[in-house]
Amino acid sequence: MRQPLIAGNWKMNGSKASADALLRGVVAGSGGVSKSEIAVCVPFPYLYLGEQLLVGSAVRLGGQNLCTESGGAFTGEVSGSMLADFGCTYVICGHSERREYYGEDEASIALKLTRAIESGLTPILCVGETLRQREAGETEAVIAGQVDGVVDRIGIDAFAGIEIAYEPVWAIGTGLTATPEQAQAVHAFIRSRIAEKSASIAKKVRILYGGSMKPGNAAELLAQTDIDGGLIGGASLNADDFLAICLAGEQTAA
Ligand code: 13P
User: What does pTM read for this prediction?
Assistant: First the structure.
């Protein structure tokens, strides 16, 4: 049985004051969550705050991106070892916003995954199709390309230390959510793709769903066989909503 992971992706939101309040709120409510793992992926400037406020709690810290290089003259970049230094457990890699706005592709994402693992971090690899691709019947081909493009570069064994998030681009921040059946079908497809290379890793790898997951729809999504958690954007900016999703994860955990 895979332990559910509910991870917040704050994206580029917040201020020092709001980050402080949100971190305190999540920590305060996290005591009621024992069967799921909780994480918050905060903007870089709030990592230090996160490290301070999450200490002693079960809430884990994550970054939202890292550099393809391990260090040196790369102005404006942040390395995996810096994230680890601030107590991060997780780092999001290949989010669709980074693919779309910053030109990330399988080659750069594979490098980021490698740097993350070298730094002792657990990357959360995001994959997902656009609405146009879904309507053209290309969902499985797109996801297969995104998964294989990384597996072929870094090898299947690396997936023993990677989480995957299926985030249909058309469901991100739109209020549109994949139905539990739509999401389950893609999650099962991703797992089968991994299983073609390693049945044992496919059994263990966690596949999170992301895309307008909210307290009202989390339970039925998380109840699906191959949905092992959530990567939460908008709803993670409100401690009560985020914790309500974490509690929904509790119901489905063993
Ligand atoms: P929303 O939950 O705001 O749709 O964002 C999902 C997401 O992109 C998480 O990484």
Answer: 0.97
Work out how many domains the chain is built from and give that number.
1
Q: Name residues whose C-beta falls within 8 Å of residue 217's C-beta, 6 or more positions apart in sequence.
A: 177
Q: One of 37, 97, 167, 187 is an active-site residue; which one?
A: 167
- Reported as a single tens digit per residue, the pLDDT across 179-228 is 999 999 999 999 999 999 999 999 999 999 999 999 999 999 999 999 99
Could you list the residue range(s) of the whole structural domain that residue 173 is in? 5-253
Distance CA 67, CA 115 (A): 8
Q: Is 69 a catalytic residue?
A: no
**Domain at 170, CATH number:** 3.20.20.70
CA-to-CA distance for 222 and 238, rounded, in angstroms? 19
Q: In degrees, to the nearest 5, what angle opens at C-alpha 253 toward C-alphas 249 and 254?
A: 170
Q: Are 156 and 197 contacting, i.e. CB atoms less than 8 angstroms apart? A: yes
Q: How many CB atoms lie within 10 A of CB 220?
A: 16
Q: Hey, which residues does 209 pair with through a beta bridge?
A: 166, 230
The residue annotated as part of the active site, out of 37, 95, 97, 163, is 95
